[in-house]
Amino acid sequence: MITWRFSKSLKLVADLLRKHFSPLKLEQIVTAGRTFPVTSRVDLQRALEKLFCDRFPARLLGVHTEFGHETLTFAHMSSNAHHTVAVGPLQHDEIDIGEALSARCLRHGLWLSQADGVNFAVLITPAAQYGHTEGVSLEIAVPPGEAALELSRKFMDELERLVSQAGSYRGKVISLEALPAYHGRAGAVRVHKLREVRRDQVILPEKTLGLLERNVHEFIHQRSGLKKIGLAAKKGLLFYGPPGTGKTHTIHYLASQLRDHTTLLITSEQVGILDDYFQLARFLQPAMVVIEDIDLIARAREQMRSACEESILNKLLNEMDGLREEAELLFVLTTNRPDQIEAALAARPGRIDQAIEFPLPDEAGRRKLLHLYSGGMTVPDEVVETVVKKTNKASAAFIKELMRRSAQYRLQAGTEGPLKLAHVESALEEMLFSGGSLNRKLLGGAIEG
Asked: Among 120-129, 269-278, 337-346, which stretch is predicted with the lowest mean pLDDT?
């Protein structure tokens, strides 16, 4: 990071502004500003580049200030006495948007431009509070008068339109990162690159697959028709079942298939920024909003230990209720403990419309899972059938780990060719007995043997 030594030899922004708006004095100019959420930073940068390229040829300057604990404004730049703001090189941040190349966004930028005989200036800078960035501040400065006022309004309206059209994160899998000093604000956007999951890699009972198909793919296909007759375009699903039965795996599958939907991943520790998530979901719709382990946020009120927990639950309920019926949002909530969820969430259509159980795999499911997780190994039929019988009540996660450990024993023995039963039995011994009952529980299976 460049450290600036401010001195009288530096060119000051205030002097350039005086020249740009001459013969007006700087205290006579009129400003208007808007603060954009941090999630709009890339789209705002692209919108500004388009505006100044297509409509308003401008001179772009880098600006630098001695202090960074508050939002820089034209008011700070208009005086040389208390807040030195100097002209310097343009500085950018590289923002990951889930593509081959990151997006380059200005930290501080000042555009000097003219339209219809009216000189104006636009300033972009981090929206800061007590040293923490909370978004992007954009301010436009114009001379007094109706013509300049109209120019200011048109510029802001066109900018908003371009930002709403850009959608750099649309169709991607993202989450928000809370600021280090917690005060309920999102800090940055993280783009996730989830593994691709195909339809044949989702090993679930036919009943479960049928519910998924009808409540996700068919619902989305029929969404426009439902909206035309005045019915809701949003839906809430609850995935429940023992740990390791494929709930998260299925979410990866849905995110892989719903490529026109933005997927937002919310963890229990991010409940303080739910409003930021819901705002972003509305902006990027159609969207899938995923909240895993919902029982940690929305446990039954009688089990809550403080008013703070109930306040967080009410925030979630209010956000879901506050969405308009035409919002094209799909909520997917997961839990291992459905009995502990607050009835106000689980027992009211419009919040959760369909619960889908993810049971432990049956014999047919375990057989498919063995082949799915065998990697490049050949597994003879007799080994498959023996393992299927020995893994009754095992979870999908248990079988996945079993195949990995079996492969380790195969490599350790230096054996080539098909997987042998001895390799699997060694892995089962280690997983079921050597580690004791706690290890069996951790690995996801109450094996009957």
From this structure: 337-346
